[in-house]
Amino acid sequence: MEFLLLGSLAVRREGALLELGGPRQRAVLTMLLLHAGEAVSVAQLTDAVWDSPPVSPESNLRTYVAGLRKVLGDRLITRPGHGYQLLVEPGELDLDAFDELVRAGEEALADNDTGAAAEAFAQALAKWHGVPTGELSGGPLLRAELTRIQERRLTAVERYAKAALELGRFDDVIDRLRRESALHPLREELWALLMLALDRSGRRGEALEAYATARRHVVEQLGVEPGARLRQLQQVILESRVSSPAALNAHRQLPMDIAEFTGRESELRRLCEPGPHSTVVISAIEGMAGVGKTKLAVRAAHRLVKHYPDVQLWADLHGFDPDELPAEPAAVLESFLRLLGVPGGQIPESLEERAALYRDRLAGKRALVLLDNAAGEDQVLPLLPGSATCVVLITSRRTLLRLDGVKSVLLDVFTSCEALALLSRIAGEDRVQADHEAAERVAELCGHLPIAVALAAKRLARRPQWTMLDLVAQLERGGGLGTRGVFDLSYQALPENQRRLFRLLGLHPGEDVTAESAAALAGLTAHEAADLLETLLDEHLLQQHTPGRYSLHDLLRAYAVEQVTATEPPPARTMARRRVLDWYVHTSWHNVQQLNPQRKLDIPPADPAVHPRTFADRDTALLWCDTERANLVAAVRDAAEHGLPEHSWTLAQCLWDFFNLRKHWADWLDTHEVALAAARSVGDRSAEGRMLITLGIGLREVRRHDESIECYQQALTIFRATGDKARQEPTLNNLGIAYMVKGRVDEALSCYEQAAEIARELGNLHTEAVTLNNIGLLHADAGRFDVALSRYLRALEIRREVKDPYSEAILLNNIGEVYRGLLDHPQAVSYVERALETFRAIGDLYGQAESLDNLGLALDGIGDRRGAEKCWLESVTLFEELGEPRADEVRARL
């Protein structure tokens, strides 16, 4: 016989389906099959068949059993005093076969045989043919049993997905996980695996859409935010600049390889040959600009990936960028650590500590690190892993003599054969063969430099009417050997609208450009700019590491700067720079509206030709900031250096919410110091004071409290001198916070009381409530709970008039703490639960962690130790995710 339970219930004898009776009789059979070979009691069967059983269920059950015996014969036996038992032979029940295959998969995993595991799990899942006995209307026990086996199936789905992901079978995994997550929208592990599969297959946007869908289900159906795993995975994907995580602590971040790569076979063999097993393998590709170092390194990296599948990291170190300082190793390490799953709050300040943590995170990992455009050994040394399981590829225009054990590969210009091979690949072998001598002359006129040969070949490929001799004539008229003549040939052959955009790109701040920012730069629509950028990409005048983002090779950027300086008069250059900075400022301001709707900031109007981006929600706003971060930081500096100081300080102020959320302390301090200097350079006292406030907050966040206090005091002096009471109030409040952190309680209280008085005078209820909250904190810390409570309750009254969920949640949590101090634990529970509900609604993880800790203390105070434990467990998880040392404090309570 064949018993099918994993879908619609069915029994076959020699292939023929048997009639199993009505729903209740089928429910009896299902319960017996779930416990095949065991006795099932009358009480169990009663709970399995009915929600509200009849007066004498035994009689009904005997009827159903009799009906089943007519079909199953002596397979169904009565066990006096124990109930009924169904006898099933090995191999007859599909559930048994499923369980056996799952066990085989788990054993294969234990033996590190991922392929066998994936196959076993896939075979196990193939046993299922629908929702198990979905047509039954049984009782609570049967529903619980069916849920239990459905849980086993979902666990197998997850095990299969993880194994298949490791094997790179993304498409199969994505299709299955889309179906499963639609059927089980509250099962967060399915969503997490779907996000990983999408991200690892290069579909980061879809991965973030999956998170948004998962979050919507959880919030709408449960009223809470997704769990820590999903939230952390979303953050890791957001912070990944190029591609995806293999897991929460591994990223594949290599730039795209290019199809037109030609030659360099001996160099590739040398770079890919096995190295010593006792130390990190370090290879340095050295050579002049334009010789193809980066392309060779990327091609070698893609060949090596199979040997280093765990982690691939990439950074452009800007060692020879004429418009940008070489990347600081500490900043590169911060980026790498974030990609490796380290929360911003856990990243150390010092270079040495960051390097140590980085080496620890890569210890034992099969990791590949590609460091492009290195300025020298000092820049590279802190970025080297310490594990012999790692390989490092470095490109540089200098010889790196002081790197121990480095394998140097000197890259010269192409040989004649390699140059002709690239010409053939791009322009067509037939055209090279038609005039081999002329082709050799083209290579010679290009100086055999790969970038120049590629440009010349592209020029020929796009002009089918030209012969190779025509190209030679064009190059000879261009005036000499090397890149300049080829650049001129390519540039001058462009239509004027393409030439104009190309040269204006020499003014764009940062590392790369999008259609939207290029549109602002040139005063075009994004659609027009996108078409022009794609044309320049086709002409090999731009390169593209990720879809939608374009960059200039260093040599071409220098050429673009030369052309824009020679062609565009100074007012036109200033106007173009102003437009692109307008775009960054106003897009950043729209971003702030999602990240912190309470922010108030006056910004100057944008040029009418500028069309800033807007954002539908917080997630898309954060994604834009994460992607554009390097350009945003560069834009602040670019504005300050080119006579647009207001853009510098306005953009810096727009960015500080993002820097705070992502814990980009270095960017925060750097941009604000630049913007502060810009404000001082033009004598704008109001802007100087505003920048001192936000710079002071940043200094406070990195615990440089004395410098923070100095900033606030300078700002206060400015605003008192200018009579700006509206600015005095936040300055005093922040100064009070800094004094409180330093233990200068009397000075803190004085600042708070002055701030509250100004807020009342100006009728600013929001800031009055904030300040009253801080005054309450001071009194609570001193044990004056009655005084603290009166301040808090007054602030809460104000909050009923001024809606600010974040501030209200903080206040409710503080009131709960005071009630604990007054030993009124039931009241404490009431207020803290309201705070927690609000923090969850707005997605504030720190607030949730803090209020969960507080709620645990209040519940413990009323004797609910189980409730307290649950709160503290969740609080520890959140604090750990945020990198907060308070996790240890809460863990100690547990």
TrEMBL record:
Specify the superkingdom. Bacteria
Residue intervals of the OmpR/PhoB-type domain: 1-88
Residue ranges for the DNA-binding region feature of this UniProt entry: 1-88
Q: Which UniProt keywords apply?
A: DNA-binding, TPR repeat, Transcription, Transcription regulation
Q: Which InterPro entries match?
A: AfsR-DnrI-RedD_regulator (IPR051677), BTAD (IPR005158), OmpR/PhoB-type_DNA-bd (IPR001867), P-loop_NTPase (IPR027417), Sig_transdc_resp-reg_C-effctor (IPR016032), TPR-like_helical_dom_sf (IPR011990), TPR_rpt (IPR019734), WH-like_DNA-bd_sf (IPR036388)
In this chain the TPR repeats are located at 729-762, 769-802
CDD domains registered for this protein in UniProt: BTAD (cd15831)
Regarding protein family, the annotation reads: Belongs to the AfsR/DnrI/RedD regulatory family.
Protein name stated in the entry: BTAD domain-containing putative transcriptional regulator
Organism (species) = Lentzea rhizosphaerae
